Every structure is written in C-alpha cells, then in structure tokens.
Amino acid sequence: MRTKPVLLIAAAVLAVAGTLASWNRGPREPEWNGRTFSAWWTDLYSLSEPSHSAAAVARRAPAQRAMGEFGVTVLPHIIDRMRAPDTEARLLADEWFTRTGLRQHPFPPGAAEHGRAMFAFQAIGPAGADAIPHLRLMLDDPRLTQAAAISLGWIGPKSLPALAEAAQHREAWVRYWGTIGLGWLGEGARPAVPKLLAAFTTEADPQVRSAIAWTLLRVRSELPASLNVLAGALRAPDADVTPVLADWLGDLGPLARPVLADLRAASRATTGDLRQRIDRAIRRIEAADVTTAPRGFSAVR
Fold it and tell me: Looking at the whole model, is its pTM more than 0.85?
C-alpha cells in the first residue's frame, strides 16, 4: 500500500529536479539553418584574424544573416555575453602572448565577445531597440563603453538620447565613444549637432575633439555650420586634430570647398608630414574626389 505514495513522491522530486535543471540551463537558444545561436555567434568575429580580412568577411556574412533572422529573440543572449567576464584561459593566453612579445598590446577585456556583439547589432539594427536601456548602463563601464556605444549606433536614431548624454559625460573616454556612436547614426545625429559644435570649441581632450570633428562631418545636412566651426582648427593647426581633420575633409571632396582657403593657409603655416597631409586633402578636394563619408574610427579593428 505504501508503493503508491512513494511513487508519487519520487515523481514530484523528479519534476522539481527537471525544473531546476531547466532553470540552470537558461533560455533555450534559437536555431537557424540547423545551427544554434552560439554556433553563429562564434563566426561573427575572432581575435586571431583582422575583421576586414577576406576569410573573416566570408565567415561573418552568413552569421550576420542569422542574427538578422533571430532579431529580438537573441537580445538577452547578446547582453549576457557582453557582460560576461573573461575566461581564465583567455586571460592566461593573452598574458603569455604579450609577455613573449608576439603581440605588442594585450587585447582589451572581453574583446572577442564585444566584437561579436557589435557585428550582431549591425545586423539586427533598429529591431534591437529593446537593448538600449542595458547598453546605456554599459557606457559607464570602461570595459564595455566601446562595444555599447557602437552597438547603440547600429541600432539607430532611437539611441540618440543615450549617446548624446554620453557625449556630455564627465569622463573623456565616455565622451569619446559616445561621440563616435553619434557618428554611426549619420543624419540621425542631427539634433545633437548644436551641442557638438559648442563642445568642439571648448573640449580639452584632443581625441574627443577629433571624434567630434568626424561626427560633425557625417551629418551632411548641417555641413555648412560644421565647416565654419572646424575651419577654426585649421587656422590654429595642431599635431593632434589637424592631420585627421585634413584627411576627412579630403574625403568630402568638393563639399569641403568652403574651407579650401583655410587649408591652404594651414599648409603654409606647417611643415613635414602634417603639411603633406593637408596638401593631399587640398588636391582631393580640387579633384572632386568624393566618398560617401569620412573614414576612420572602425568599429572593430
């Protein structure tokens, strides 16, 4: 007679154990074309090769297609992986490569996962808007700032408030990446242009000033006002901002003609490599060599 209660208790114990096991496993990963999210995720980026190499691009293309197909369903997985600490094995390997001189600089913490996240959000785009509150919090973490800012940029104009706030942050490294994220928005950053113009004239950090210049030149609808302010940097050339500014003005081709006189004056006032870069920009502007946007600030190097 005791058999039935014992069986019921055993069944209940097994049910509870199964539930706990499912909780420990976390949410089930979605699949596409017979492969799980994790399998596609690994193909997005690797520390062992440049992200722009032919092999990396070929492997990443279907992985980004998968991320686009997954859409909002994988946002929790992506956020969890961005926050996850590095494995001990990766940290030891990185230390060994750096100590033996095989690599000049250590990879930043979580570099592989953060690179994959940026490429994932590039594929998901505006559909990733639900991740904005989480990414906004990551901007204050030095380990996550770059990945969060670029990911917000790929999401699009809904990220504007978070990135504009970061561009005004008290810490220079947050201002830098917040400004770069705004540049990723292109025309979507137009509402932030007035504050960026003001910041360019007062910003003390040269890297942040360079980032502001790059972002301003990507908002084509506000180009006249931006060129008027940026011309001031050409009238007082410096080794930090002027070289990259000249390169980006050259990328604009004839759109940068309003600052040709300032470029010529800057060329006469400088020497060496800086003068060569300014002269090259002048030739490109006069030759009507136009590209779609200023170069620089690759999301993943």
Answer: no
